[in-house]
Amino acid sequence: MATGFTINSSTSNDINPSEYNDSHRLFLQSMLSHRILTEGEAQNLYFKICDLINCEHVEFNEFISVINHEISEISLSLRITRDETNGSSFIGLVNTKEDELAQIATKYTPNEITYFRQMIETIVMADDDKYAIGSMVAIRLGQTMKPPLTQKETQTLIDRLNDDQWICPTPDGSSYCIDTRGIMELQGYLNEQYGDVIKHCKMCHDIVTMGERCELQNCEVRFHRHCADGQFSGRTIVCPECETGWSRTNIFGLGLPL
Amino acid sequence: MVHNDDDNQNTNGNMEVDEMESEEEYSQDDDEEEEEENNDYETLTRQIAEKTDRTKYDPSQNKEERRQIREELRRLSKKMEENKRSLLQADNDGLNEGIQMQNEVYARIKNVSEATIDSKLLVMTADLGAQKARNLKLDNDLFNADEFVSKIKTLGGSRSKLDWTRIGNRAFEYNQRAHTIDFMLGPLSVEKKQRKTVRQVRIIKNKEDLVQPTQLQEGDIAQQENETSANVNQIYKILDENGPINYLEFITNPESFSQSVENMFYVSFLIRNAVAEIDDSSGQPILTTRAPPAPEELAEDLTKKQIIMSLDIPLWKDIIDTYGIRSSIIPTRPRRQQSMTSTRWY
Known about the structure:
heterodimer; A: 258 residues; alpha+beta; Arc Repressor Mutant, subunit A; three-stranded antiparallel beta sheet; 40% helix; globular; B: 346 residues; mainly alpha; 3 strands; 49% helix; elongated
């Protein structure tokens, strides 16, 4: 991350937008601070930057890809995913490689990281495709650590994880599920660790932790709610694999708002 | 007339006057008594006045004097307020001088209202002292923390909820700290290798398989054969038929120790309800049935007596030998049937 920036750069006014310039640098600096933004906010940011730098606008996606090309060298990436609760687009800065440098790039202690790892395991392995961990279970999980965390420490840790947007509370307030940022960064990790149990959306093929499922108990077909909206508009609603009638109310994942 | 010193001495200036007369006064005449009483009263008050300690508290202190004290105290606090700024300088000894002057005034204070003013002044002095100490730490000339904080508050709108965005924007101009970002993908991978081996099978709970504790209905528990009251009645009948009989012969079952103990248990109910009695006046305990006692007998001194009988196996064998018991008078009760129907545990 050696890309510094200065506004009073020595470049002239005719800035080539397809080359990595100050606008990209400024955007990246902003993303370092925000970590994750809605696509709308990100685009506003982009317009502001363009005005500031005084360069012309390009297609937002093109802008992002220029940045990605540069930062891929240091195993970072700007990813665009959709929030599973409502389908809105988010863009976030994530790490793509689990190398030694990345291992120390965190302000959580190793014990806390272990806690988070177990929390993720509990969430992914939860019964009934809940993809959530109950608040009390989460607190008790802290006591199984070595050394054990007190209830207060556990709660503080959970709050910090929440503030950093790795987890978020479910709509009914009873449990925690993995937040958009968490899914965004940990896609690879989850696929690798839990590849056989974690499900993927039939439409977009991304990991799905809340959405709609097939009526048939054994059928593995899952959709994000926003993907299902696209799939099942108008036509007769059946499961694409087993052809059972599809009920749009057969949902899973506690994080999904009703 | 002798009055004891400790009767009169009131160190807190208590002005309550108890008229006390010694025994000698009763013998004097009425006229003289009245005069004597007045004299006594005067002497009394005089002595009380002399002995009262008015150094610390004196409600009868001169009003003018009190006014002067209050005036001086107020003057001192005003002075301290005005000179606050200079007093806080590290080299200024004004606080010390202020304390000295306060001490001098305090020596003259003899009432609560003045003392209150004095204590307020002392608190203010102490606060200034604390502030001075704080400033000393931060080298007051270069940077005054309190001033800085108050200026920040003004920038933020001086309301209870500050406008932090505005403050932040201003601070940003002087701040060149680089942003940091923390990731989760790297840290999580530590120890990833071991995780793969431990795997739980995820189960989807089937509603039907959920187990609930079985609800017991009343008729489910089969009535047990060894009902105590039935047995007690049975034994009463047997006793009635057999008439007065040796207690030990009656209860002992030569074939079963446990049955003997149970027999003893059931007989004790009979005794408790006073439908049977043991009479050992003859040297041997004789058990007979009897009618329950009438109320008159109870009133007339018929008391209840409690004895604890114990029986262990050697003793039981001994009884069988001594009395030559061959067969049991009380028939042996059959063992409780254990019918284990498949699902039920009761």
